[in-house]
Backbone:
């Protein structure tokens, strides 16, 4: 009778029905709004949907709510606030330049012009940003920005945003937070026995199958609106600033459901992660704001090198800086380069970057006196699930916001600190659109339960762990900062073999988080590789030696 206590608990969390089938407890939960992901995008949307009073909101977290990638963002959030020196047109121009002019201008306009409203909402929800003595925001400048427009909270802005939103979410009576729940698949007509292809019109989302951590069974979550806010895919690389949970789950689920996925070749490698071989998932990020503050990139012998690559020196956009560092490391046989702030006032450095100072000090590096060892690593995905200006995907009733979505804002390369504000602005757009249509949607109660047959042995778990490491190595070696047709073809071949093996295994074992994450990593790796192969040019973050674009690129 243990299922009865679980049922009582689940009922409080919005369970619509529990039935017995083959002596197993089958749980069906109904929520008007199903939000999968708990970063700034997911929580911003959940708060606005809940405030409408139009229904119950489920916020599904893969791990603990505090562990979203938002919390790792150190530098800040971009918005035009100082109108004496800055304006929307400057921010728009900077974004288009950074994106190598393949951004969707409509998306750029939407984010930039609505950014101040987004900042106001965050402040209303309890987020604090540093201010000067006169009460105005203390603004930073980062690479690619023509003005000081980065709002921040010391050097842990993402953590502060996450803290403020978590408090607001936990205090809202219409939001149910489900931690350690793993989304396995989104539900469409395919699960009703209807053939669905990429040419099928009007594919519709009815919710998701979600793994319960307590019962280890996959429950059916029905919804009127489903929102994917699952973050990026940095964990498909061997070294990344992303946490281990960033396995591209939402993108892979949407792709398998036949949603349109776009611009996956544009993987941003942050130029300056702290070089510390023991930390790879996540690697510790040395914020771009430190270069905006005056940090200078040098070789370990003290020699500057950015003058060889860009007139903006250490404040050039991330793709240029990352490729320059990669080139210098290869030329000199180095495993890292250095960032120098020793010429800055020590107390000012400690004040602006207290967490970086303490982190480095814990490794025996006093950044006020010594260089910081840095190396590029996978950081941010500019592509993802293609959405329109309302955050609607190509699947009806399915929205995508945050890093898993391709809004068109970033184009070929993300401008520093544009990601957090994009998430806030598009969460508002998604909320406005979905709330205006929610009354048109109903629950589809014909959805079948998940087939929970199969077993998993310890030997198979070893295979899964090894295959995940192989994906990381394939992506890092062949689909990294610098690519070629030969490397991409090799990645394609290796991933295809892993795909076949993993799908065969998935069909005969019980679904677990480990094997589902592996499937997602392989799917995402395939998408990055395929779309990189399809782009026959060097553009933005996608650099290939087979299609050099400029004399500058010839140097790389």
Residues:
């Amino acid at each position: 009778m243990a299922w009865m206590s679980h049922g009582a608990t689940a009922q409080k969390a919005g369970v619509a029905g529990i039935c017995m089938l083959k002596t197993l407890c089958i749980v069906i939960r109904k929520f008007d709004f199903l939000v999968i992901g708990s970063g700034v995008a997911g929580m911003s949307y959940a708060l606005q949907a809940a405030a409408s009073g139009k229904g119950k909101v489920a916020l599904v977290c893969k791990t603990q709510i505090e562990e979203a990638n938002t919390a790792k963002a150190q530098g800040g959030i971009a918005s035009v606030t100082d109108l004496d020196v800055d304006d929307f047109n400057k921010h728009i121009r900077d974004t288009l330049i950074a994106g190598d002019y393949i951004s969707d201008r409509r998306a750029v306009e939407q984010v930039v012009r609505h950014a101040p409203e987004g900042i106001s909402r965050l402040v209303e929800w309890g987020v604090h940003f540093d201010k000067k003595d006169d009460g105005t925001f203390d603004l930073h400048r980062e690479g690619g920005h023509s003005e000081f427009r980065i709002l921040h909270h010391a050097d842990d802005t993402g953590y502060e945003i996450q803290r403020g939103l978590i408090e607001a979410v936990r205090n809202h009576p219409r939001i149910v937070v489900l931690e350690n729940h793993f989304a396995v698949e989104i539900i469409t007509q395919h699960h009703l026995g209807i053939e669905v292809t990429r040419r099928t019109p009007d594919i519709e989302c009815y919710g998701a199958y979600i793994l319960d951590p307590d019962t280890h069974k996959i429950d059916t979550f029905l919804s009127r609106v489903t929102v994917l806010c699952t973050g990026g895919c940095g964990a498909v690389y061997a070294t990344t600033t992303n946490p281990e949970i960033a396995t591209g789950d939402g993108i892979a689920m949407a792709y398998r459901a036949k949603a349109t996925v776009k611009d996956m070749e544009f993987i941003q490698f942050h130029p300056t992660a702290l070089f510390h071989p023991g930390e790879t998932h996540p690697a510790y990020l040395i914020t771009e704001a430190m270069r905006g503050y005056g940090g200078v990139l040098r070789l370990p012998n003290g020699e500057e090198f950015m003058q060889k690559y860009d007139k903006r020196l250490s404040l050039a956009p991330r793709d240029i800086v990352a490729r320059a560092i990669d080139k210098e490391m290869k030329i000199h046989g180095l495993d890292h380069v250095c960032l120098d702030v020793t010429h800055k006032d020590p107390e000012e450095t400690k004040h602006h970057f207290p967490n970086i100072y303490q982190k480095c000090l814990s490794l025996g590096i006093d950044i006020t006196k010594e260089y910081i060892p840095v190396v590029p690593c996978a950081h941010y995905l500019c592509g993802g699930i293609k959405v329109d200006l309302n955050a609607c995907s190509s699947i009806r009733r399915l929205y995508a916001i945050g890093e898993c979505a391709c809004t068109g804002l970033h184009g070929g390369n993300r401008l520093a600190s544009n990601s957090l504000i994009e998430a806030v602005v598009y969460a508002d757009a998604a909320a406005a659109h979905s709330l205006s249509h929610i009354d048109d949607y109903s629950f589809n109660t014909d959805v079948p339960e998940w087939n929970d047959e199969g077993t998993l042995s310890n030997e198979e778990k070893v295979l899964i762990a090894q295959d995940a490491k192989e994906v990381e190595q394939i992506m890092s070696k062949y689909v990294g900062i610098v690519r070629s047709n030969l490397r991409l073809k090799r990645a394609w071949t290796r991933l295809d073999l892993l795909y076949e093996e993993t799908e065969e295994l998935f069909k005969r074992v019980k679904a677990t988080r480990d094997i589902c994450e592996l499937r997602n990593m392989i799917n995402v790796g395939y998408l990055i590789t395929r779309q990189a192969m399809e782009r026959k040019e060097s553009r933005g973050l996608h650099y290939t030696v087979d299609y050099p674009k400029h004399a500058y690129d010839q140097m790389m």
Remarks:
- Residues 272-375 form a domain with the Flavocytochrome C3; Chain A, domain 1 fold (CATH 3.90.700.10).
